[in-house]
Specification:
single chain, 423 residues, alpha/beta, Rossmann fold, Dihydrodipicolinate Reductase, domain 2, 2 domains, 8-stranded mixed β-sheet, 7-stranded parallel β-sheet, 25% strand, Homospermidine synthase, Homospermid_syn-like_C
């Protein structure tokens, strides 16, 4: 891609993750050593949202890019308008952090040969018909997407490259590649997010607080059965997600997380035929609110929901995300932990959005810098099937990773499980 020809279109530009990504791109535009500096410096960036913000909003986020920005208000459900816009603007690459349908966005890009990256899979039909796939929204989203995934051969696309999914697959391969002669029995994606207001009085009692989309979180937490992978097969536990806890040990860090269905476990464990699951612990305020209403999930959805935003009130705590490889007699782990103070200092965002923005940045850099074959890749597929510098790009801003080994193991997934109602 020629430097002067790079035209970027960002979908969902008014959201929190887009804000973090734009701040990161602004850093790249002023840093001559940044891997994407020259291409960003000479680019045009189109910002699209169905509820667009004024240009002054973006000026406070990415002041050094303001002359390169063009703002537009488009409903992404109208794919004809979007496709015509991409063609008319000579867009080279789409960064999708919206809630638009992933397959429809890929259709538009594939027809025009426009490269594409996103942070998660979205499916408008399934979202509009939640009772048709109650208990299984994530796996149905994946199954639908994979009907079409291999048909897109006129573009380069990396899907699901945030922190998790995304960076965690890179961590898992990094850890496995350090010990190539030892095959793990399982790989667990682990997250302990302690982010919350420094001033506890800033929290309202009956509000669900998360560091990313509360609606997406609640779909996993209250409308999904706990899912894990075994023998390349997704398996489900017929329980409330927040009735179960699973033990995680990372050296001197220990916590219990609930089991949520997640794209990274599905793709990674299918790739390597190992057991896997995603153990997630969110802030205690939100956990207690959900557990107190588990028998009445409709009440949970009637509660107010908010993203923890440091621009509204300072945040404390941190987000720890990593992988835990299980062997017959030991465990190895790798994780990244970002404090909210650091995330605010770097990107004026929370820790979760900082991590996700780094994953998006890495995938974006691969698409504009590396010569990979056409096709649609999950991050683990990208790492296994192509010659790329994903880890190098990622590590430019996400610099601190902790490696360690537990001299014993807590076992496979069911060995770690505790049912809170029966205990």
């Amino acid at each position: 891609m020629h430097e002067s020809k790079l035209v970027i279109t960002i979908l969902g530009s008014a959201g929190g993750l887009a804000r973090s990504l734009l701040t990161l791109l602004n850093k790249a535009s002023t840093n001559h050593h940044d891997p994407i500096h020259q291409k960003i410096y000479h680019s045009t960036i189109h910002l699209i949202d169905n509820k667009q913000r004024p240009l002054d909003y973006y000026k406070s986020i990415c002041p050094d890019l303001i002359q390169q920005l063009r703002i537009h208000q488009i409903d992404l459900k109208d794919t004809i308008i979007l496709r015509n816009f991409l063609k008319r603007s000579h867009t080279s690459i789409v960064i999708d952090v919206s809630l638009a349908d992933t397959v429809e966005m890929l259709d538009c890009c594939n027809q025009l040969g426009v490269h594409y990256v996103n942070s998660a899979l979205e499916n408008i039909y399934l979202d509009d018909h939640p009772f048709d796939n109650k208990g299984f929204p994530l796996i149905e989203r994946l199954r639908f997407f994979e009907k079409y995934k291999d048909d897109y051969c006129n573009l380069k696309a990396i899907v699901c490259s945030g922190m998790n999914p995304g960076v965690v697959q890179w961590m898992a391969l990094e850890l496995m590649n350090k010990h190539p002669n030892e095959q793990p029995l399982a790989c667990f994606i682990v997250e302990n997010d302690t982010s919350f207001f420094k001033n506890k009085t800033a929290a309202n009692t009956n509000v669900i607080y998360t560091t990313w989309s509360p609606e997406c979180f609640l779909k996993l937490a209250t409308q999904s059965y706990p899912m894990y992978m075994n023998h390349k097969t997704p398996l489900f536990l017929y329980e409330h997600t927040f009735d179960l806890e699973f033990k995680v040990t990372l050296g001197d860090k220990k916590f219990h997380g609930c089991l949520l269905p997640h794209e990274d476990c599905y793709t990674l464990c299918r790739q390597f035929d190992i057991e896997g699951g995603y153990f997630y612990k969110v802030n205690d305020h939100t956990i207690n609110l959900i557990q107190n209403n588990l028998d009445h999930p409709d009440k949970i959805w009637k509660l107010d929901r908010k993203v923890l935003d440091p621009l509204e009130s300072p945040l404390g705590g941190e987000d720890l995300v990593g992988v835990l490889l299980v062997y017959p007699d030991k465990e190895r782990y790798m994780y990244n932990v970002v404090a909210n103070d650091f995330a605010y200092d770097q990107l004026k965002t929370n820790a979760t959005y900082f991590q996700a923005a780094c994953g998006l940045y890495a995938a974006f850099a691969v698409l504009i810098n590396d010569a990979i074959e056409n096709g649609v890749y999950y991050v683990d597929e990208l790492l296994v099937k192509t010659d790329n510098h994903y880890g190098q790009y990622l590590s430019y801003y996400m610099t601190d990773f902790v490696y360690g080994e537990n001299p014993q193991t807590d076992g496979l997934l069911l060995d770690r499980m505790k049912n809170l109602r029966s205990s």
